[in-house]
Write a structure and sequence with these properties.
132 residues, alpha+beta, two-stranded antiparallel sheet, 5 strands
């Protein structure tokens, strides 16, 4: 029996649109401030709940970097990120996921690899400039 397709409510649609309109990988709190301009009565709990739902549906990515607050990415495709160790900024890296890495790890440890996350760390251009 075919499962019904999950429903995209108006709130979820607005959250997804706002998240895909930025490349800053916002936290739920930052996104909440942005969404309230379009949906003034939305609660922070609703934003959190819907971000989790959108993540579970594979429509957005949850980025858990460096023990800090979770960030969200409107691009659901597999890709890598880089995080500034000074200011915490997170950016995308235009590098195709390295499939041979998964094959190598699987052959070495016997795990069935379902995916991987790779985070690069460094200093963003603004922080490098500020140091000079």
């Amino acid at each position: 029996m075919k499962q019904p397709k999950p429903r995209i409510t108006h709130q979820r649609e607005v959250i997804l649109e706002e998240l895909r309109a930025v490349t800053s990988h916002p936290t739920a709190d930052e996104l909440y401030d942005q969404i309230r301009q379009r949906l003034p009565r939305i609660s922070l709990a609703t934003v959190y709940r819907n971000l989790e739902w959108l993540t579970d549906q594979g429509l957005v990515q949850k980025i858990e970097v460096g023990g800090r607050q979770k960030r969200f990415d409107g691009n659901p495709e597999k890709h890598y990120h880089i995080r500034c160790l000074n200011c915490g900024k997170v950016d995308d890296i235009e590098l195709a996921p390295i499939q041979t890495l998964e094959t190598s790890v699987e052959g070495q440890c016997g795990y069935r690899i379902l995916g991987h996350r790779l985070e690069f760390q460094g200093l963003c251009p603004a922080c490098v400039h500020a140091e000079q």
